[in-house]
Amino acid sequence: MVETSLYQTYNRADLSFVRGEGVWLETADGRRFLDCAAGIAVNSLGHSHPALVDALKTQADKLWHVSNLYAIDGQEAFATKLTEATFADRVFCTNSGAEALECAIKTARRHFYVNGQPERVNIITVEGAFHGRTLATIAAGGQAKYLEGFGPKAPGFIQVPFGDHDALRAAVDEHTASILVEPIQGEGGIRPLPTECLRGLRELCDEAGILLIFDEVQTGVGRTGKLFAHEWAGITPDIMAIAKGIGGGFPLGACLSTEAAADGMVAGTHGTTYGGNPLAMAVGNAVLDVVLADGFLDGVQRKGLLLKQKLAGVVDRHPDVFEEIRGKGLMLGLKCRAPNVDVLRHFRDHNVLAVGAGENVLRIMPPLTITEDELEEAVSRIDAAADAMDSELKRGAAE
Question: What's the pLDDT band for 2 if we cut at 50, 70, 90?
Answer without folding.
Answer: low
